[in-house]
Write a structure and sequence with these properties.
3-stranded mixed β-sheet, GMP Synthetase, Chain A, domain 3, alpha+beta, 2 domains
Length: about 160
């Protein structure tokens, strides 16, 4: 089975198992090498996921992966939360985290820059309206987002908390 097909199948399995366990599927990826693949699954839930949540989900996913036997070699399965500085994978992620600090890297320049750090103000259509700490408000088309992640700011958290 081709790597992209393997990734697709893993994503489907992880989404189904996450839903059955009452968890929000965030992302799945296959890293490592063809001989030693590492399957990573990220999940979340309100209040955060526990080690027990991850363990139960890992066992469910592993049972299906082993039964289907479509990964051509031994693999390592990692199930975890996306973390404090989680990556943002979709426009829905940006909508979910409006008001939070983030870092965005783009494939194309906007005002002679490809890296931005600031606050997600809103999402309008396929554009992220972003309050950049040095350039005021920037409109970033989602199609040119190369990588984005939340930025944990303990001072902000303490003020809100």
């Amino acid at each position: 089975m081709e790597t992209s097909s393997i990734s697709q199948r893993i994503r489907q399995i992880a989404m189904t198992a996450s839903s059955q366990k009452g968890l929000e599927f965030v992302h799945a990826e296959v890293a490592g090498t063809k001989r030693n693949p590492v399957v990573r699954v990220f999940v979340d839930k309100p209040g955060g996921v526990t080690v027990e949540d991850c363990g139960e989900l890992s066992r469910s996913i592993e049972a299906v992966l082993d039964a289907d036997d479509f990964i051509p070699s031994a693999y390592v399965l990692e199930v975890s939360s996306p973390g404090l500085e989680r990556e943002l994978y979709s426009l829905d992620d940006f909508k979910k985290f409006i008001g939070r600090k983030a870092r965005i890297k783009t494939t194309d320049e906007i005002d002679s820059r490809k890296a931005f750090k600031g606050t997600i103000e809103t999402v309008e259509g396929d554009e992220i309206v972003f309050s950049d700490r040095t350039a005021d408000v920037v409109r970033i088309p989602y199609g040119i987002v190369k990588k984005a992640n939340l930025v944990f700011d303990i001072a902000d958290d303490l003020r809100k908390g």
